[in-house]
Amino acid sequence: xxxxxxxxVLSALALSATVSFADVMVGGQxxxxxxxxxxxxxxxxxxTTLVAAVKAADLVTTLKGKxxxxxxxxxxxxxxxxPAGTVENLLKLENKASxxxxxxxxxxxxxxxxxxxxxxxxxxxxxxxxxxxxxxxLKLMMNGSHNISIMDExxxxxxxxxxxxxxxNGVINVIDTVLLPK
Length: 182
Fold this sequence. Notes:
The protein is α+β, with helices and mostly antiparallel strands. About 35% of the residues lie in helices and about 25% in strands. A 7-stranded mixed β-sheet has the order 4-3-9-8-7-6-5. The longest helix has 21 residues, at about 1-20. The model is unreliable at about 1-20 (pLDDT under 50).
């Protein structure tokens, strides 16, 4: 009787772990860890501006690559905080290089979930630095017991609103402000 009960409990735990892991919702849609960064991002209603920008900068193939990548993904509301006309200007064909630099500034090689970032911050006495794919730097610091803030090279600060959205080729951390390189 005990072995049957143990098997049932273990099966139930395994099922619930699988369901809760796959049920991370971003932009009203489940983000499935079996899909890559692009295949999940295109389903998020909160990231339509980011997806349009990634397409305009020809970064789709890169972000569908093996990785692992960590993407600090600004929401549509984050893009709306930028001065009027900034997004439209960046999306122009003649500004593709600038757009690419801004977008790759939001990407870090490696897989940085909450625990990994918090550990880095602790190891570096309260502020960790990550190198971005664009060649810039992001500074990470704790902002409470379970909140990490990210400061860009221009002094703007973003907060992570959704952590650890696991992807087949990395992780997405949703942020509330667009990060800007120097």
